[in-house]
Amino acid sequence: MLALPFADLTLAGHDPRGVLWRMAQGFLAPDFSAVDEIGRALLLTVMFAVAGVAAGGVAGVIMAPFYDRPGLRAFCIALRSVHELFWALLLLQVFGIGALTGVLAIALPYAGIFAKVFAEHLDEADQRPARALPKGVDGLSRFLYARAPLALEPMRIYALYRLECGLRSSAVLGFIGLPTLGFQLDSFFRQGEYGAASAIMILYVALIASIRLWMRWRLVPVWIAAAVGVLASVQSPPMGQGALWRFLTEDIVPVPLRGGCDGAALADWLRDILTMEALPGLVATVICAQIALALTGAVAFFGFGLIVPRVSGRVGAALGHLGLVILRSFPEYMLAYLFVQVFGPSMLPAILALSLHNGAIIGHLLGRQAEALCPDLRADAPRGATLWAWELVPRLFGPFLALCLYRWEIILRETAVMGLLGVMTLGFFIDSAMAELRLDRALVLLVVAGGLTAAVDALSRAIRRRLGTGALRRVPRETLLGERA
Known about the structure:
Helix content is 75%, strand content 0%. By secondary structure, it is an all-alpha fold. The relative contact order is 0.11.
């Protein structure tokens, strides 16, 4: 409520009803006639995701055993605090619009994420086998034989989830020119071919929903080999000689330092960036993210009961599952892109996209926990809204807060990226600097965005620890009866 008066929620001076009507007509009549273009985009979306997640996963496995070292932890935080789209914009300056840009844009942040999560899995595994080994056993053997096998199953489960995230990232990379589903969606929307855009979105949801059918652990080597083969055939315009060296020694070097070390000029240059671009971008990013976080909580709080049969009935639960699957399948950026076509480039499309996507994720997780609770309820437990309000909400409020605080950092990270759609967040100023080839300014703004994300992540973890929110605490029935007696 405090942030609302400062938010730009205008409709960009046009009536959205006409656009909504044309989009609705196209979405109700999907056009699969452009199957060749859509099919190739679908294939490349999968291949970019497989290659990027595989590369990030291998790097994460290598770094996970050493994640407790401060330098490596800081390096991983820096990797994952920069969004895939920002990585792609930087890599475009070096490698051009090619396969390497797409793979690295996914692999770099995912390596930092994998390292953190895999390190947590290793720490949570039983430590007794590693301690039982003789003192002379080297660290690699200790890891391979006593630690990694115990954490392998949760690591495999998380890798599959991360592949689902990789498919979202891969699709979104199409909006900056890579030949994935986002590129085709952007092209069809610009041409007003909403039927073809509808076909793309249907195929995309089907791809996400069926991931557990076509991605099997034993087929991973086959998928990786296929990704290498397909991406090697992707044609891209060649970059000039020495692009990487020029990027490292000239493009990202601050302008005041290119002719020599001038501390006063550098201070003025930094002050100009921080006051004219970074500070306004930070304020807009925080305002937009906080409103989106509050609405995310509202969507999840009132929506998780929709997928519980004892609350909404069997038919209602099936429809609720379908709605949450669709909303959480589409990346925030893609949803925001759709809303921008209707409402224009204000904060409204970003807030709607962030709250619907993240609210659907939290609502799905809470709904699954609620379904697991129902069999343990007493025999005379109510049904419908009474069950939701008096039985499920009190038991799941701790996990609800923990999930909201966990998604806070992700929402803030995604809010910064919404600037690429014209919303005046940090991404808007980063995109402007990239378009003007002022990569030194863009790098400073990326550091600011990464610092904000890391700070909110640390604050979120501190709040979760202080509130004691986390896994559901189950009290044995016998204990309750004993206390009452």
